[in-house]
């Protein structure tokens, strides 16, 4: 039993929605994040209202704008809105590849948080799905077409010259020429790693790139690269519960840890997101990896409801 009186249900819903609607209200401070946590801790009803508002945002992509106008103007709510902005912008709520939102989109195969899965397709090709991955399969007499909607997968392709094996991801595609390769969504780009054989990477209005074993490339609006050497064993170490990083941005490490961790790690600073990180991290000990990140980079951590952590 709480020691205070909760607002009427409709009023509480409006307050919770306001945290979400005004997610672009400005830069958050550690104090703002603490204010959000305090608001959710006021009662179980507050926490549930906030979770429901977040769930609705993920389903609809937005909330009614009148919510913002009618929301209470209490000091703790105004300060918490800035913290909400960091949480939602950092997570990219509109990408429905998260546990809750992913259920809204039908996929032939999908995995949840910390879940990996191997499937055998009708031609004998095998697919290893990383955590938080969704893909569709469309086989015909003329082609084998895969759509990777989110996450990452390693493809072990059975050779069949009469039916090309094509994986589509965002605005590009990867055609296998009898091979093993990974396709991975990373923020605003897609990474392709060729482990065995050869693949052809195609994008609209561009010449295709040929990747051989031990090569990788990225494509996307904000991050594209030419083929370059890669240690494919290190790049695909997630299949052995490991992440191997060598001078890669902290944002990429956080993105991978979030596939295996309940809640979210949020980077509230662009400068922190760009910090280079090296090390070997165990995917079954994500909190240990989080603490290593915090201490080695000298970051401040703010812990929020739902196992969310804001790093800055």
UniProtKB/TrEMBL annotation:
Coiled-coil blocks: none
Record domain FecR N-terminal: where: 14-56
Domain FecR protein: 108-199
One Pfam family it belongs to: DUF4880
Keyword terms of this UniProt record: Membrane, Transmembrane, Transmembrane helix
Membrane spanning stretches: 76-96
PANTHER family listed in its UniProt record: PERIPLASMIC SIGNAL SENSOR AND SIGMA FACTOR ACTIVATOR FECR-RELATED, PROTEIN FECR
Protein name as annotated: FecR family protein
Lineage, broadest ranks: Bacteria, Pseudomonadati, Pseudomonadota, Gammaproteobacteria, Pseudomonadales
